[in-house]
Amino acid sequence: MNPTAAAQLNSLLAALILLTAFALVVQRRMNALLHIFAWQGFLLAVSTAIVGFVGGAHHLYISSFLTLGIKVILLPYILHLLIHKLKIRKEVDSVINVPTTMMIGIILVIYSYHLTAPIRELSTLVTRSTIAVALATFMLGFLMMITRKHAVAQIIGFLAMENGLLFAATSATYGMPLVVELGVALDLLIAAFIFGMFFFHISTTFDSLDVDQMARLKEED
Amino acid sequence: MAASFAALVLLLVLTIFLRRSQRLLITAGFSLAGLASFLAAGAGFLTVAQGMTFRIVVPLGLPDLPFHLRLDVLSGYFLMIIGLLALFVSIYSIGYVRGFLGVRPVTSLVVFSTFFLAGMFLVVLADDALFFMIAWELMAGASYYLVMFEDERLENRRASFLYLLVAHVGAIAILLSFGILAGLTTGFQGFEGYTFDAMREAKHPQALATAAFLLAFFGFSAKAGVIPLHIWLPEAHPVAPSNVSALMSGVMLKTAIYGMMRVIFDLIGVFPWWWGALVLVFGLISAVLGVLYALLQHDLKKLLAYSSVENIGIILISMGLSMIFASFGLTVLSALAMIAALYHTLNHAMFKGLLFMGAGTVLHATHERSMEKMGGLIKFMPWTSALFLVGCLSIAALPPFNGFVSEWLTYQAFLLSPALTNPLLNLLVPLGAALLALTSALAAALFVKAYGVTFLGHRRSRHPAVIHEAPWSMRIAMSLAALACLALGIFPTYLIHWMDPITKFLVGDTISSSAAGFGWMWLTPIAHDRASYSAPVVFVVILAVVAITYLLLHSRAGTIRRGPLWGCGFEGITSRMQYTAMSFSMPLRRIFGFLFSIKEKVHHLPPTTHSAFPGRLQYHLRVRDRAWIWVYQPISDASFWISRRIGRMQHGRIQVYLIYSFVTIIVLLIFSR
Amino acid sequence: MTIPSSLIETTQVALLLAAAPLFTGWVKMVKCWMQGRTAPSLLQPFRDLAKLFSKDVVLAENASWIFRFTPYLVFGVSVLAGAIIPVLSTDLLLSATADVIVLVSLFAIARFFTALAGMDIGTAFGGMGSSREMTIASLAEPGMLMAVFAVSLVGKSTSLSQMTAVISQGGHAMLRPSMVFALLAFILIALAETGRIPVDNPATHLELTMIHEAMILEYSGRHLALIEWAGMMKLYLFTVLGIAAFFPWGISLNNDLPAIAGALVFLFLKLGFVGMALVLIETGLAKMRIFRITEFLGSAFLFATLGMMSFFMLE
């Protein structure tokens, strides 16, 4: 595979990752959210592997496998169990309506593109054009955490943010050092377990995972 | 040109003599006005065609400050637009104003129409700040009296006061802008800088030029009705007599566009790209919000007034694009966008004039302004309804009519925005194109509503009054405007060729060599393999297919039977069960409802016969402009608050006032020591 | 051997008139197979049209000339649109008449008059159909323009023949993110514009869910035949428009006889595939509530915008 074709393939993957990021922001059904999240992880793993191949950075293969294992299989499975156990089926509410969220998302993408312009000019890597997409994925994850009312959806937003960071690292500097990545992966796993326990408690306390309920915890006037 | 003014002066003299015979006054008066307009249009046309510039210095006005007049291609173009529509409207007025005979004296209408016309002509001819402001005020003042024409209604008096207020706030801004530009040329010493020539010559420092631009943009926007300065427009246009609203909406708003072009491209000349972006953004806001507000109206003339806001927005969009391209040095693209802006200015004058004249005819016949009481008029007024349809098709930007040509050119300008070298603009400008697409699609919905509810379906009014077709003069005027719409739509290449000197003058480049490079039938703005459009072919092919299909299908004798409507088995269909203007826009009202302040109230009346049959429902809908609540309410509250504070200083005793004067003098003396 | 472009143009219009009902028949056929029903013949749409043409017209009581003129106009506009889109060859007599923006506006003419005809008869249904149709069309328009923008960035033109030629010569155009996104957007918009599930159901006559059918409820005889035929042509035209912009391989760039014959074979293959894909979409989805369409068309706009942006960001 020659570098130009790889770069083009990588661009296509970046576009698809951006698409999944938007899909996460607007999707209502919880199961579909999990599937999209798993797909995002898969695309990210493939992209990382390709970058590793082209850039000769072989530690990226390990990173790619980690992504595949944790974000495509393990985390979605845990969340799936959680959803199953907590009997979450109904559609997820969001604070802002869907078309408005999309428009905000588009503005965020343009803003990320504007922000990353200096990096693009300085970088010489074949992957430099995807940095904007990576930053946008990060911001969209954040947007998702803000607009969703449901705790599980917020966690998925958080994980999507992490995906964006990883993608940014890969495309800007061919990945973080391996130790850091391993650490992050471990953190994520632990975070997922802690969140799982939290959800369990929240839902037994409030009979719901709607985070609006938590407003009841504030001091009464 | 001089002959044109001679005709107007003659008209004024005539008015004095013909006060007694109102009928003769109308005929003679508006014929003369028409003649003057025709001469002005001709003068404008020739000026542009030959790319000439005339200057006159008239030794009138203040000592040492003579009036400068100049007829160049830009003035010529706007003179042509004003003259052409004024000609149609004058013909129309002969029939329309007769409707007032026996109701009220029309002398004031004739006099102020004359002043109004003269004011508009002089605005585009003025070549110094002083004379420009005088002509501007003449135009504003005369139109104020025209809006006030039917002054016994409170609504009219309120609308005209609002109009006067906004017009003057705008005029102050324009005056200040000229002040800055004039001051720059003379270093704020002396008066020589007040001519436009001096302003053109001067080198403007960035900061002051920006201030002048912002002030001028604000001032002219108030006249043009750019959101959020549009509030006077939907109040004043509907209450004015329809011939006046046609002129106000069709051409008076355009003098503001003229002013912007004159100040930005001619007097200042060099500008950074964000000026263009600012104009573009305000254009987009006006276009989208204007058409959405229009969709929620059920008063036909108010709907048209909001639609003017939208169209001014579209003109500003093209103008903003032209400015952005110009500031990046892309002169050909700038010329393309400028042509789009100028073309839309002309188009809007034609179709909005036509639509206002049509609305006036409907008003004249039904004495109703609310569309909810119209319906089915196509059977009573075949001419008016057909001509109004032409106006609707043009304004909804459907080929082969004229509105489409200018919108298509604007799209082409948008599609060429990747040529800009600023990556951020590359991403943002296309979003503007999407908003323009939204606007034009909503405009189509708007005019389906306007036409469908007014002319189609069953008659909604409960008073079966006799509705008559308009008199011949009104029909002729509307036919002329409709013909202009069609001609401007089918032969754009001639017009673009003719407009060459204007873009040469404003942005220093032309597009006619490429635009008409393949003969008069093919419009190819930049290159033939980039985009092309042939209105004549579209027109002829559609007509031919329609004719062939019709003939083929009618070769076999078939009968047409008339049958009752299908109402799902329900037989008592009445005209009240039709979709109304309010219900037509309901889906869009729900989707875009967050942009307005909407109050809905449903009131259930108790059942009258039996509890199984539901009682009547009363539905109230009130839609308000958010601009009122967000912008004007605070301002008006603040000014009332301040007035009350100041009011406390009023005691009514002469000694107190003398103390005020004395203190003022003392304070002034301290400063002037 | 080279064929004159006027002959190609004639063939293409003839093809439009013939293939549009065939394509509709094919979609119905596949749908029946999918749902385990016995399919009507491929020629059934022709029979329906013939039957309608031979019937007399029953006109609503207060229908005006607009109501009677609309079917002819809608038909004429569709035929003109069919003469512009490159189906067999990019070298067409009338291809310079209109670029893709004009083409979209041609459909807008048809829609404008159909909506007026819906208002003309003065029933609640007609008005409801018109109102909904115009609403959906307004919401679809920004996405459509954005998709055009994205494709014109790749094709460096808005002239259809030029775009088709550039894209078919461009090699692996489908690997370009902008084209992928534009295609997604185009599919959603085409579903909305041609009134297919999930936006509108062409087979329903249930009062509350009708959109397009509500406007043409009062048509009969030859008027209805023309409207129906134009509706079939619209589906066919959007399909070939998609093919010309996104899958142009096989469309002849010159007017050689073998190339044209090849283009014809390719066209039928592609139409067959698109028909099956359409059936998959239509059986897989349920009709949406009308206010969910905002989200549907919002996604179309999002895809198209992402397409435009990824051209600048990634390519």
Summarize the structure.
With 221 residues, chain A is an all-alpha fold. Helix content of chain A is 77%, strand content 0%. Chain A is globular, with a radius of gyration of 18 Å.
Unreliable segments of 5+ consecutive residues of chain C:
none
Q: Largest sheet of chain C at a glance?
A: none
Total number of beta strands of chain C: 1
Classification by helices and strands of chain C: mainly alpha
Helix content of chain C: over 70%
Radius of gyration of chain C in whole Å, from Cα?
19 Å
Q: Quick check: average pLDDT of chain A?
A: 82
Distance between the termini of chain C: 40 Å
Gyration radius of chain A (Cα, Å) is: 18 Å
Write the layout of secondary structure elements.
The complex is a heterotrimer of chains A (221), B (673) and C (315).
Chain A: H1 3-26, H2 30-55, H3 59-86, H4 98-115, H5 117-122, H6 131-147, H7 151-173, H8 178-206
Chain B: H1 2-17, H2 22-50, E1 54-58, E2 67-71, H3 73-96, H4 107-125, H5 129-147, H6 154-186, H7 196-201, H8 206-224, H9 232-239, H10 242-268, H11 273-295, H12 300-327, H13 331-366, H14 382-395, H15 402-415, H16 423-455, H17 472-490, H18 492-498, H19 500-507, H20 512-515, H21 535-554, E3 560-563, H22 581-584, H23 586-591, E4 597-604, E5 617-624, H24 626-647, H25 654-671
Antiparallel strand pairs in B: 1-2, 4-5
Helix pairs in contact in B: 1-2, 1-4, 2-3, 2-4, 3-4, 3-10, 3-13, 3-17, 4-5, 4-10, 5-6, 5-10, 6-8, 6-9, 8-10, 9-10, 9-12, 10-12, 10-13, 11-12, 11-16, 12-13, 12-15, 12-16, 13-14, 13-15, 13-17, 13-19, 14-16, 14-17, 15-16, 15-17
Chain C: H1 5-34, H2 44-54, E1 57-60, H3 65-84, H4 100-120, H5 124-155, H6 160-169, H7 177-193, H8 212-215, H9 221-246, H10 257-284, H11 293-314
Helix pairs in contact in C: 1-3, 1-9, 1-10, 2-9, 3-4, 3-9, 4-5, 5-6, 5-7, 5-11, 7-9, 7-11
